[in-house]
Amino acid sequence: MKALQAHTHCAWATHCGSRRHLVHRQADAAVDAAAGGPAVGATCRRTARRRNRAALAVTAASTRPAPPPPPEIVGAKKVVILGGCGRVGSSTAAALTAALPAAQLSLSLGGRSQDSFRAALARRPELSNASPLVCDIDDSSSLAAALKGADLVIHAAGPFQRRNDCNVLEAAIAAGVPYMDVCDDTDYSQRAKALHGKAQAAGVPCITTTGIYPGVSNVMAAHTISTNRGEYAPDGSYAEEAEQGGAQPKRLLYSYFTAGTGGAGPTIMETTLLLAGEDVVAYKDGQRTVLPPVSNRRVVDFGTGVGRRSVYLYNLPEVSSGHQVLGVPSVSARFGTAPEPWNWGMVAMARLAPKSMLADRQQAKQLARWLDPVIRGVDSLVGEKVAMLVEVEYEDGKLASGLYVHPFLSTAVGTCIAAFARCMLAGQTQPGVWFPEERGALADRKTLLGMSTEGCTRFLLNRTPWQLETDPVQLGMGLYL
């Protein structure tokens, strides 16, 4: 079943949602009839329904259409990955290596030393054809040399928090090299977006905040909203004149879960510590609202395999871009991890630690390194599963949700970044600096989503919430959890 689910893509999830709902209702009716009608105990009927739905799901999966074909990339391409020797960068390099023929792809992995390149090869032997590139992103001459002759630069040298410049983006625009980054910082992304006119005038395509979240999560939200608005032509391309027949979105909620650090190492811990020191910007009824970090706990059901998890408000860039680009009045983003005491620790850190410490990149890095042995031990116990739930509420009361679940964050993040890179290498991005949800970023969202969901155990879009939820657990005495 998982092998079949791994090939689920957004077109099937969107088109077949109502079909599956009908199949489930027919299955429920058949169970009631076979069981002798409503007089039979609810628990027996519920168990039978789950079994019948599981059997029908296999049949439905066998008839689902194939994912969209990947975009065509013409000619050999040179890709430079800054931060390519780190966990995220090397995962991206591995995904690109697996997706493209060796004769078509020339990879340069940027890092501060040859030692970091050797460490990356030790973790990922499949990158033996990649070339080392010693580069300092804070040195303009080093950057210019690194970008020479590149067809695409991927900026994965995070964390992006507390950086006051966009020097890699500016160097890429000056060199005429298409650019994308894996930024997860609101301020940085807004500074990058401010260079849109400069990139457009230079004819350089750029995307900021690519990756899994933000990145694919933005595209999930945009695809859901655009489908309801009638913004697609029958062939799936953007319609020149949208029908505008659907209700407008009222609220957009992003919820993310990662077990442990997701195998991403100290960098994700360093980023989380820095975010714990940032006030959260959210939007409510069109008004900008500032809230404390790691606050407003919400329990979210990520469905079978992940279950119900606590998530907390963090200051993430997809909130501002979702409000600005998609025009949603109320937007927020939450993140949570496992085990639950990690979340409690982050709450305590956000409340008790000096703001000056959480605002200091060096102190956050030192603390993350100090915690690294403990983190590795916990990661070995809880795994690295990742889940994203994107919920859209419309003005007419309609709810539409999207769910993404992958067993390994370290693999998923590389797959998602590589999907954006493949779209850019195929010429799907217009000149300018774009957020992932903007039309100029991707000529075909479904293709991006199809590539991004490789290896997923679940991927669904435009579903009602009950279709994604975990089956209730009976506690006894008529009580369910």
UniProtKB/TrEMBL annotation:
It comes from the Eukaryota. Transmembrane segments: none annotated. It holds the Pfam family Sacchrp_dh_NADP. Residues 79-207 form the Saccharopine dehydrogenase NADP binding domain. SUPFAM superfamilies: NAD(P)-binding Rossmann-fold domains. This is Saccharopine dehydrogenase NADP binding domain-containing protein.
